């Protein structure tokens, strides 16, 4: 890949998020096992572990990641560059919401398949907003973060109302997220909450708190959302969820193979 083709997703971090020893897919995990863990522990449990590598091996793994995204997800290569200066193009009738994902693995699926689903009330809120902004010529933008991660992972635009008759079979929690709507990702980069420490908004419960304290489908006022988009656009990131795509793809493939084998064994009996 020529130098001008390389994405701004990748840099040369001192360590690299490598593989994990987890042997099964999280879909079948019992929710109770998370009850006594902090949000940060919960988040760490859904991502590959760091492995400290010598510089040569680290660079080789970064190159492998670049090649994997380039050949399998080429549409994501220039996504951040393509949407540069988005804050200047957003119409006044647009609305903005925080999305809190249960795991980074679910965000991977959202980027891969272009879909998302929130809670029942969250889907109603987002769908109403989508229909309202559509009538006025605006859009709905979603700021994605994982519980306990301490950062935003990117921004997606809502592209359809939620269809309650549909569901997605690969979320990390079985049968919890009913309904499905389309999204288009416009920024994919890790931006820590500290970059937004001066943004204070009124939450759903009426309390005034930093935006980092926002819960799922919390609306962000227009003037603050534009500032956040501009910060995400200009932030020089060193890490991104795209580093983990091969890992998550392999986990999904193994899960599908196991489910297919179980189904075949059941049919034969």
Folded structure, characterized:
By secondary structure, the chain is of the alpha+beta class. The protein has one domain (1-269): ph1033 like domains (ph1033 like fold), CATH 3.10.590. Helices cover 34% and strands 21% of the residues. The chain is built from 7 helices and 11 strands. Strands 3, 4, 5, 6, 7, 8 and 11 form a 7-stranded mixed sheet that branches. Strands 1-2 form a two-stranded antiparallel ribbon. Strands 9-10 form a two-stranded antiparallel sheet. A hairpin with a 5-residue loop joins strand 9 (200-202) and strand 10 (208-210). The longest helix has 24 residues, at 245-268. The radius of gyration is 19 Å and the shape is globular.
Please specify the SSE layout and strand pairing.
Elements: E1 16-17, H1 39-44, E2 50-51, H2 55-72, H3 79-82, E3 95-101, H4 104-113, E4 115-116, H5 120-136, E5 140-146, E6 151-158, E7 163-167, E8 178-192, E9 200-202, E10 208-210, E11 219-220, H6 222-234, H7 245-268
Essential attributes:
disordered N terminus; 269 residues; 34% helix; alpha+beta; seven-stranded mixed β-sheet; ph1033 like fold; single chain
Short note summarizing the structure:
The protein has 269 residues and is α+β, with helices and mostly antiparallel strands. It has helices spanning 39-44, 55-72, 79-82, 104-113, 120-136, 222-234, 245-268; strands spanning 16-17, 50-51, 95-101, 115-116, 140-146, 151-158, 163-167, 178-192, 200-202, 208-210, 219-220.
Q: SSE string, helix = H, strand = E?
A: EHEHHEHEHEEEEEEEHH
Contiguous helical run count: 7
Give unreliable regions as ranges.
1-47
Computed structural class: alpha+beta
Major sheet attributes: 7 strands, mixed
